[in-house]
Amino acid sequence: MINVDKAALIWCPCPDPDIARELAETLLSEKLTACANIIPQITSVFEWNGKANTEAEAVLVLKTRGGLLDQATLRLGECHPYDTPAIVGWVCDTAHPATLGWLGGVLDDS
Fold first, then answer.
1. CA 85 to chain centre
2. What is the pTM of this model?
3. What is the pLDDT averaged over residues 15-31?
C-alpha cells in the first residue's frame, strides 16, 4: 500500500525539452504534481524491436505525493507522444519536513 503522506518522484524520458515542458505544464495545471525538473539532454541506450538504439532525449522529473503517484503516472502516459513511454515512479523513503509541507500545501490528494 502506498503511503499517501510521503513524497514521490516520477522519471520520464521525453523526445526533447519542449515536450517535457508541455507535459510538466499539463500535470502542474491538473494539480497532479507540484514541481517539474527538466534535464535538457541525456543519451539513452536501449533495445527496441530487437535492435540496440541510441537517442538524445530530455528527462522530466516530477515531484508529487504518494497519494497522487498512480494518477500522475497514468495521466503522463496518456499525454506522452511515445507509443510506449518509459515512465517510472516511486515513493521516497524520506524527505525534508519542509518539502513534505510544501507538497501538502500545493497538492490535495485526499
1. 11
2. 0.93
3. 98
Contact 11, 78 (CB under 8 A): no
Residue 36 CA to its chain's centroid (Å): 8
Q: Determine the pLDDT at residue 108.
A: 79
- The C-alpha cell of 97 is what? 519536513
Closest CA to 36 of 58, 67, 4, 5: 58
What is the pLDDT, as a whole number, of residue 30? 97
Write the DSSP string, 50-96: TEEEEEEEEEEEEEEEGGGHHHHHHHHHHH-SSSS---EEEE-S---
Give the span between the Cα atoms of 47 and 97, in whole angstroms: 40
